[in-house]
Design a protein that fits this description.
Elements lengths: L7 E3 L2 E3 L3 E3 L17 H7 L5 E7 L17 H16 L3 E6 L18 E2 L8 E4 L2 E4 L4 E2 L2 H20 L4 E5 L4 H6 L14 H19 L4 E5 L14 H13 L5 E5 L5 H9 L3 E5 L10 H5 L4 E4 L1 H5 L3 H6 L30 H9 L1
Parallel strand pairs: 3-4, 3-14, 4-5, 5-10, 6-9, 10-11, 11-12, 12-13, 13-14
Antiparallel strand pairs: 1-2, 7-8
Helix pairs in contact: 1-2, 3-5, 5-6, 6-7
Length: about 375
């Protein structure tokens, strides 16, 4: 039985344990997309996990969906992220950037060029999105031409190269909710070219992005995040969904990616199928996982690593608290996104550490 606290070799790097910090949008970057002044400290505080997957990071102007999210495609972005990487590495951690192209989940007010969002098809999600001017209806996106799809694939590859240039250990392709998932879903993809219709065609974009990133930085530095059970943002993969994801995971396995990161909402049958189909690392995230279940998926062999989001957000010393069987800080959703009235550190780098709490008790 494998212990979640044991080391793990992921590609060419050795992780100090099998805990993963899940990617979490914080919307605290500078307006030009460079990480904010406290980003290095935020990630440093949480670097005791084996692998940090950063917040979603846009690969281009078109890829930005929300205000104050970071990018990784300019020299300024590279310089800003280098400080984050150095902080994580100095404390024994490793880091993959999550490359997130928001696709139709965007608004012109949130992007540097203020243009209409792009998507597989000109179908809006029927939802609102946060902007610095308040909540607004998401406009109808513009359907990418076939040539523009190929150019978008190259945007991912370019961003991956800039990530490695900044000192990242690798990148994770975000395949949930946003552009990659929008190509998979019949509700958002009604194309009639080679990227629409059949399972093979709808999976093509995800596979081509992975191929391009692998060609740029190597398979050992490339992961992907998927969720067969995700149905938010107006996305519906249709009755073929399980077969689509089995096909996609099988095709991606041929590329020998470092890992697949699964966010799991449904039955475990498909996870067992992935365990059989996929021959490298599996990271498993179960939203709302109970504390007593931490480590069970690694122990059973269903996953090689387990990822945690809000627990790590609110507890920079998450592993120390588990080891001491200490209470966990509560994550406050009101401070998840954007700068807070109480100051830039509020809800970001000001969560109390266990040793400071214990010192207070002793005093």
């Amino acid at each position: 039985m494998t212990d979640i606290h044991s080391p793990f070799t992921l590609g060419t790097i050795t992780l100090q344990n099998r805990f993963v910090m899940a990617p979490m949008t914080r919307a605290r970057a500078n307006e030009d997309g460079t990480p904010g002044a406290l980003a290095a400290e935020y990630y440093r505080q949480r670097a005791s996990v084996g692998l940090t997957v950063t917040e979603g990071t846009q690969p281009s102007d078109d890829g930005q969906g929300y205000p104050l999210t970071p990018g990784i495609y300019t020299d300024a972005h590279v310089a800003g992220w280098r400080e984050v990487n150095e902080a994580i590495h100095a404390h024994g951690g490793h880091v993959f950037y999550q490359l997130m192209h928001a696709g139709r989940m965007s608004h012109p007010d949130n992007t540097p060029h203020h243009r209409q969002a792009v998507a597989p098809s000109a179908i809006p999600p029927g939802e609102q999105i946060y902007t610095l001017g308040g909540m607004k209806d998401i406009p109808v996106p513009r359907a990418l031409t076939t040539d523009e799809v190929a150019a978008t694939v190259e945007d991912y590859a370019y961003a991956a190269r800039r990530a490695i240039e900044s000192g990242a250990d690798g990148v994770e392709i975000h395949g949930i909710a946003y552009l990659v998932h929008q190509f998979l879903a019949t509700s958002s993809n009604q194309r009639t070219d080679r990227y629409g219709g059949s399972i093979v065609n709808r999976a093509r974009f995800a596979i081509e992005v992975a191929q391009a990133v692998v060609a740029e930085i190597g398979a050992d530095r490339t992961g992907i995040r998927l969720s067969p059970g995700f149905t938010g943002f107006g996305l519906d993969v249709g009755p073929e969904g399980p077969d689509l994801f089995r096909y996609l995971v099988g095709e991606l396995d041929k590329l020998s990616l470092a890992y697949v990161h699964i966010v799991h909402y449904g039955e475990d049958d498909i996870l067992h199928d992935f365990r059989r189909i996929w021959h490298r690392a599996i990271i498993l995230n179960r939203p709302g996982r109970a504390r007593e279940d931490i480590g069970k998926d690694v122990a059973s062999g269903l996953a090689d690593l387990e990822s945690y989001g809000t627990h790590v957000l609110a507890n920079p010393d998450f592993l120390d608290r588990l080891a001491a069987n200490a209470p966990l800080n509560t994550a406050d959703h009101r401070v998840f996104f954007g700068h807070q009235p109480e100051g830039p550190a509020a809800g970001y780098t000001d969560f109390p550490a266990l040793e400071s709490e214990q010192a207070g008790v002793r005093a």
